[in-house]
Write a structure and sequence with these properties.
This protein has about 230 residues and is of the alpha+beta class. The protein has 2 domains: about 100 residues, OB fold (Dihydrolipoamide Acetyltransferase, E2P) (Beta Barrel); about 100 residues. It contains 5 helices and 9 strands. It has a 5-stranded mixed sheet with strand order 1-6-5-3-8. Strand 5 and strand 6 form a beta hairpin. Helix 1 packs antiparallel against helix 2. The chain is rod-shaped, with a radius of gyration of 43 Å. The termini are far apart.
């Protein structure tokens, strides 16, 4: 009559923290597949809880990094294999149990090192950063105020020019004096072009931007009146 050996039960146990340790019996039963839990319970019952029944077989070496779900070590017992995996990234800093050694439940197998956290910013550097931010905020506020003043001046200038053009247009529409009104309009057009044409200022000049806005907004009106 032939006999056959039943396959071993493999229990995968996830670990966290800064140490790898042999799981307790309750932890192994919790991690085991439900259909194999009874077999595991019988296998564990053959030995006392503190008996060194697990042989150590390292899958990683000291100094090597563990990535999530990497098997760090396998523990072999009677019909049972325990695979200890790490749930995060860490370095196997020191192995406390040699390969082939026999260990008991709860025994620490290795020390781990987590990835170093970012160094805290020194208080002096933090205060300097806050001070620089406050200076930039103040400079931005001053620039916004200056731009608002420029915009107000631009709007006032446009309003005055519109008034002048409307006045000239009104005089042109009256009988007589047309030649004088035309001469004044041509003079206004010439003076406006001389003072606000963008090409009259260097390209990098800050005043040029304001001239461009005024000229683009007002020059078509001047041309339309001149053609009427």
């Amino acid at each position: 009559m032939g006999f056959f050996r039943r396959t071993e039960i493999t229990v995968r146990r996830a670990c966290r923290g800064t140490a790898l340790a042999v799981p307790t019996r309750d932890a192994l039963l919790d991690a085991c597949q439900p259909g194999l839990r009874r077999r595991l319970q019988l296998a564990l019952a053959r030995h006392s809880a503190d008996a060194p029944v697990w042989s150590v077989h390292w899958a990683k070496v000291a100094g090597e990094w563990l990535h999530p779900n990497d098997v760090a070590v396998r523990l072999r017992g009677d019909e049972v294999i325990i695979e200890l995996v790490y749930g995060q990234r860490a370095k196997l800093a020191e192995a406390l149990a040699a390969g082939g050694a026999r260990v008991a439940c709860g025994e620490t197998l290795a020390r781990l090192e987590r990835r170093a956290k970012a160094t805290a910013v020194p208080q002096t550097q933090l205060l300097q950063t806050i001070s620089e931010f406050a200076v930039r905020q103040r400079q931005d506020a001053e620039m916004i105020t200056a731009l608002q003043h420029d915009l107000a001046a631009h709007q006032l200038l446009v309003a005055r020019l519109r008034h002048e053009v409307a006045s000239l247009e009104g005089r042109r529409s009256l009988g007589g004096g047309t030649t004088g009104a035309d001469a004044k309009f041509r003079r206004l057009k010439h003076e406006f072009s001389k003072r606000y044409h963008p090409d009259a200022r260097p390209t990098e000049d800050a005043e040029r931007a304001r001239r461009v806005r005024v000229f683009k907004e007002f020059w078509p009106i001047v041309e339309e009146i001149d053609r009427s």
